[in-house]
Design brief:
The protein has 415 residues and is of the alpha/beta class. It has three domains: 91 residues; 202 residues, P-loop containing nucleotide triphosphate hydrolases (Rossmann fold, 3-Layer(aba) Sandwich), CATH 3.40.50; 63 residues, Orthogonal Bundle (Arc Repressor Mutant, subunit A), CATH 1.10.10. The protein is built from 14 helices and ten strands. The radius of gyration is 38 Å and the shape is elongated. The N terminus is likely disordered.
Length: 415
Amino acid sequence: MSSDLHPSQLHQQLQMYTRAKVSSWGSLALCCGLLFLGANQKPETKPWILGASVGVLEVGRRHRQTANLLQESLGDIEGASRINFQAWARTNTQPTAQLALTVGAIDANWQPENLITDPVEYIQKKQKHVALIGGTGDGKSTFTQYLSSKIGGRVIVYDSDAKPDDWSWLDQNDVIGRKGNFLAIDTAMGKDLSILKELVELRGDGGNQAIAGRDRFLIAEEFPVLVEECTSAASWLKKHAKRGRRYKQFVLAIAQNDTAENFGLQGDKDTLYSCFCLVRLGQFGRDYARTKLKDPQLEQWLKAGGKKRFLVDDCPCELDLSNWGTGATVQPENSTGGSEVQSQPTVMNEFEQFILDWGQQHPGEVLKAGMLSRATRLFDGMQPDEIRIFFVSMADRGLGEVEGNGDRLGWRWSE
């Protein structure tokens, strides 16, 4: 019976049965064809054709006999076919040794030893700019808004692919290059270099007071594209990298790779790593943790935290909203050993003005991010974390105060 056969034998005998059955019917058909052909041939060729047809018929008879013997051995043909298919399915769908992975248990309470919760403090202490490595949906907007609110200065963005709702928290006149207008970006970057030169002269004549209020936060989106399209981009980055921080011109360059070539610094890798903190968001951070740091536990920790967890250089970072609004800012030392006062922006954008107006109309009430999203279309497209940045930024400047922390952080007006 078929159930007594090994699957490999069953498969082989089914193949032999099928071939024998087909061959027997084929031989019968060929024999009939030869006889029909011989009926119309000359008398001297008919014996040969008749002999050939008898030979073919004998081959067919033997194949039919073989098929009958195999059928007796297999028993129920349909049952044998079903058993054969089940054996094939098990062989081709069961996990193989190469695919088997052993994943250790992950402690939900595990924290990296070198965890930092305030990337701004780290960046300020290093006295560097930021090279941001991140893709769409990795939290670039949240991080840049957070960073700019802490460092201060007028925010200017160079983004040739900006959609209408991108950078919605900024004055739209400061978003340069929409619709692929690389000429506008190249022209503006050229002006930036002139401004930097002017600031060098002013500071040389009058010290830090001469450049007070000229702070700027410059964001260059998809910098490799700008390097290809704008003749000023490479020199813009290099000159700001080496001198910009001293003159309150902070640069945040965004790319999807951390090579020096991507930042227009061919042959000058030292400039990238000596003048920039590398912030890796999303999958870029997880890949770096796995391939460079060789730390799978850190990779899982980053993945579990979503947009709030990323890497700053080789240090894991988790944004802690409970620390926002404390008013703590790092005062970097200047070349004379003194402290440079970090100026805070005093001009409010339309989003901050709306929040302020709401607070003055509802004294004592705590405003939450979700309430704003429901109250007006002005904040459409913003993530709650992005709205909370406004709360903290305003509180840092003495415009109201924050209450709560994390996802429960809110803002209320206070004199």
